[in-house]
Every structure is written in C-alpha cells, then in structure tokens.
Amino acid sequence: MSVAPTFRTYLEDKNITCDEVHHRPTATSAQTAEASHVSGDCVAKGVVLSCEGGVKLAVVPASCNVQLDAIRDFVEGPVSLASEDEIVSIFHDCNPGAIPPSGTAYGIDTIVDDSLNDQEDVYLEAGDHETLLHLTRAQFQQIQENWQHGKIAVHM
Fold first, then answer.
1. Given a cut of 80, is residue 108 above it in pLDDT?
2. Which pLDDT belongs to residue 73?
3. In sequence order, what DSSP letters do the residues of the chain get, joined into one string?
C-alpha cells in the first residue's frame, strides 16, 4: 500500500515532499525503528484515544508509551485507548496498527509530545507496515497546525 492516500493528499496540500524509507514488515513502531536503523526517539507513532466528545490522536516517540494521566489534563475527563472499530472507521485507508501520526489529516484533534519537536529528523508511519516517511524538524512542525503540545509520553 505504501503511503495512505488521505495522508499523502494532506502532505501534498502542505507542499511537503519527503523521503520514503522502506523496511521489512514490522508489527510495532519500536520494531519499525529498529528495522529502519533509526532511533525510536525519532519515530512518531499515533495512539488513538477515546474521550468524552469523541476521539483524539496522541503522537509520541516509538520508544515511549502515552501517559493517560497527562492526556486527561488536556481533555479534562476520562480517557482510554480507542477500540479497533473506532480506529478502523477513522483511518479507513490504513493497515491496522500503522496509522499516520496526524489526526488533522483525518479530521480529529491531535496532541503531540514535546520531545518530538526536539528531533532534527522525524520519521512517521505512513499507513502500512513497511514504509516510514522522513521529515525534517521544520516539515514535522509544519504539519502540526492546531495541534496541542505537552509532555504526554514516558519512556518504556
């Protein structure tokens, strides 16, 4: 599949061109970082969360887990991991478990961990289990229009 069509269109609308990094099929973002020979701190993964009023996307490094307590401060209410059905209905053109870390492209609010903005290079899941997109820090920040920011991740 390579890059999910919705995400590709979003990047094109932002005039962002980036390199594709192909790797062996992987099951987790941490494995993807390893297979691509990049630090897990530089691979942005999206975690879909269910909260009052709908879903949100948390974007954290592949080397980290989302801190649900920190997310609660942003959404001011209960939060949990979204169900597979919720995820598939939103990220309809992506393979399960390989969603791009940009809720904006799919019409949902996004919260990004501050540590990703400290990276010179950021790698994104693209919609399948064999492709990463390589963005510069400036390009990654360009796609963050209207995203919330904070410390929402903890290293595994």
1. yes
2. 87
3. --S-HHHHHHHHHTT---EEEE-S--SSHHHHHHHHTS-TTTEEEEEEEEETTEEEEEEEETTEEE-HHHHHHHHTS-EEEPPHHHHHHHSTTS-TT---S-SGGGT-EEEEEGGGGG-SEEEEE-SSSSEEEEEEHHHHHHTTTT-EEE--EEE-
